Fold this protein.
Amino acid sequence: MAPLDLVPVWTVILAVGVFMYVLLDGFDLGVGILFAFTHDDDRRTLMMNTVAPIWDGNETWLVLGGTALLAAFPLAFAIIIPAVYFPIVLMLLGLIFRGVAFEFRLKKSSQQHWWDAAFFGGSTVATFFQGVVLGMYVQGFNVSGRVFAGTSFDWFAPFPLATGVGLLFGYALLGGTWLVMKTQGDVQQWARNHALVALYGVLAFIAMVSIWTPLTHPQIAQRWFSVPHVFYFSLVPIATAIVAYATWRALRRDADYAPFVGAMALFAMCYLGLGISLFPYVVPYAVTLWGAAAVPSTQMFLLIGTLFLLPIIFTYLGWSYYVFRGKVTADVGYH
């Protein structure tokens, strides 16, 4: 009897973990990015208060995604991590500075301006290098046999760096629409204006990637434009355009919740497009998901614990968001 194929199950778990992290930590990193565009202390405090109770729970998905990659696809982990070692280190340093700023910035001290800078700088650095890692992933890795054969600076190339900038706009869009949903008055209008600018940047980046990747990767062009793929995959860019227009209208028509839903949907469409372009590779364009997977017994052993933990994570996060639902006002603090 053939062993049960658990690779699709672990692929879904890994994909969900990464996507949840991008959405949830994306909006609080986006709030940090937007910190640089206001010097009003009360506004900054209110912005931070919208994410202070939940930001650390959002990072649970980063741990889950990294652990799933290591445990279920160890070969992919062994190839990818050396290729993006420095961006990951810099990303983690940014997350550390952002986390420390949460604890010290709201304590109201003479060093508050330093913690403002740490909050913005940490959020920006973490976001940029997450984008670099994504760009490096799409660009592909130099693999010889089963070993990374490139250098530690292969990421320092036009496409990964451009992706880093693109993700800054993307997280700023998530952060801006989150503030639209969680605040009111002049802060909400300020966030709405900045979310619109971020949306334009995201759309420009999507257009750039949609042109750049098929031109530089024939296999991606073949996937999207060959018959019959072109007929049903064309629904993805069409849906993306509809979502982008709906998000733009929601921002212009003073909606509270629709812009954030639209921003998340826009990320979902981009994520779907990425999956279509790269499947079945877990190390583009060298190692497939099945080629990098751990042995079935290891996957099964790990799956038992993971299926136990996932409902706990979803329940905890759901309860956190429920408790801290609604608008955040100036008299609501973080202690």
User: Anything to note?
Assistant: The mean pLDDT is 88. The beta strands are 143-144, 147-148, 281-283, 287-288. The CA atoms of residues 21 and 61 lie 5 Å apart.
